[in-house]
Amino acid sequence: MSGEEDLTGHWRGFFNYPSQFPPNPFEAELTESAGAISGLITQPGEFFYPPGTVLQAVIEGSREGSELRFIKIYDDLDRPTPHYRGTIQPGGDEVHGEWTIPGDWSGTFFMIRAGKAKAAEERRVSEEVR
């Protein structure tokens, strides 16, 4: 594994609910050490929280090759614990995958390293202006 593939850093992304609910954005600060993944996710409260609510969750997981697995443990311990499984894309700056709350529901997620997200947005805006 080269240094550029280490997942340590700031990430931005979104996760999707079943079709009747809108996607929810999140930011994650990840640390990778010898295949162990830890970090903190911050996200807006979803549809059943008052507007402006911010949720935080600790993540614990592992990485093996291009596979990333982690669980998200919310500060609000009454919330269920989602399990995430994703594929790290070549270069190590994007992850695509799915989340599930066992026996309940599931959806997809996508995250991109924050510096890469800004570069992609700037490139898209530049292409739109031409």
Give the topology, please.
Blueprint: E1 9-15, E2 24-33, E3 36-44, E4 54-64, E5 67-74, E6 83-88, E7 94-101, E8 105-113, H1 114-129
Antiparallel strand pairs: 1-2, 1-8, 2-3, 3-4, 4-5, 5-6, 6-7, 7-8
Brief rundown of the structure:
It contains one helix and eight strands. The chain has one helix at 114-129, and strands at residues 9-15, 24-33, 36-44, 54-64, 67-74, 83-88, 94-101, 105-113.
Describe the model.
The chain is mainly beta. It has one domain (3-129): Lipocalin. It has one helix at residues 114-129, and strands spanning 9-15, 24-33, 36-44, 54-64, 67-74, 83-88, 94-101, 105-113. It has an 8-stranded antiparallel barrel with strand order 1-2-3-4-5-6-7-8.
CATH class: Mainly Beta
Distance between the termini: 38 Å
Strand adjacency order, main sheet: 1-2-3-4-5-6-7-8
CATH second-level architecture: Beta Barrel
Measured as a percent range, the helix fraction is: 10-25%
CATH topology name, in short, is Lipocalin
Percent in strands: over 45%
SS summary, helix count: 1
Features of the shown structure:
eight-stranded antiparallel beta barrel, 8 strands, globular, 1 helix, 130 residues, mainly beta, Lipocalin
